[in-house]
Amino acid sequence: MIMNPIPTQSSEIRVTPIPRMTQGGRWRVEAMRSYTSDLLLWFTRGQGRITVSGRTRGFGAHNAVFIPAGTMHGFEITSQVFGTAAFFPRSLNLAFPQEPLHLRIRDAAPQGDLTLILENLQRELDGDRPKKERAAENYAGLFSVWLDRAKLQYPQNERKSEKADQLVARYSTMIEEQFRSGRTVSEYAQALGITPTHLSRICNKSCGRSASALLADRILYEARRLLRETKLPVQQVAAQLGFTSAAYFSRAFQNHTGKTPSDFRRGA
């Protein structure tokens, strides 16, 4: 069965429990990927680590993570992690931040406000009342106001961004824009004006992964998504992701996942 619980492209507001995002495999949230919609992750229970734009932080209960559309990210999920994910299409033209935010909401009042907004939003989306789309858009607008207030109340007290952090963020953006091109880490490093060794060193410091691991993770997420959600032949999947041959793609896929592309697709 072809499964697509969370589309990478959507023109609709969507709200879903965070555990449901893993339908089809934990790789759906743990591997590096992005969406064309702005994303809110509202963690209400559990803890783990989340990587956004090449930087890894810990998250816990009552953490709100806002991830703009097109931003590469992934996060750990266990049976203890619970919360809500909300997807807001760019067509809403809301005044959302252009940079990621990680807010630790310590007080009960704003925690309750956000939970209520998301519950009301979900109720409108699931119901059949007239003008539900308009109502959902208004709740999305209320969320944008909540986010602006939370930014003022809970500023991100983090160390000043260093040049290395900026380079990793730029590398993350370049991967997201060009991971289908077949470019190597050396070519990305050259475009950034640094050596591959230095790029890998700063990636390890920022997120605990090498530059090649970040790149491979993004490519393999897309490979698995295409194998699960489309009927494209393996050869076409390989070509779309910049591999020079289907055989090379199959070897790389099996080395990282333990399965051939065909076996992975049959397991859907």
UniProtKB/TrEMBL annotation:
Keywords: DNA-binding, Transcription, Transcription regulation. This is Helix-turn-helix domain-containing protein. Residues 169-267 form the HTH araC/xylS-type domain. InterPro entries: Homeodomain-like_sf, HTH-like, HTH_AraC, RmlC-like_jellyroll, Tscrpt_reg_AraC-type_HTH. SUPFAM superfamilies: Homeodomain-like (SSF46689), Regulatory protein AraC (SSF51215). The keyword Thylakoid does not apply.
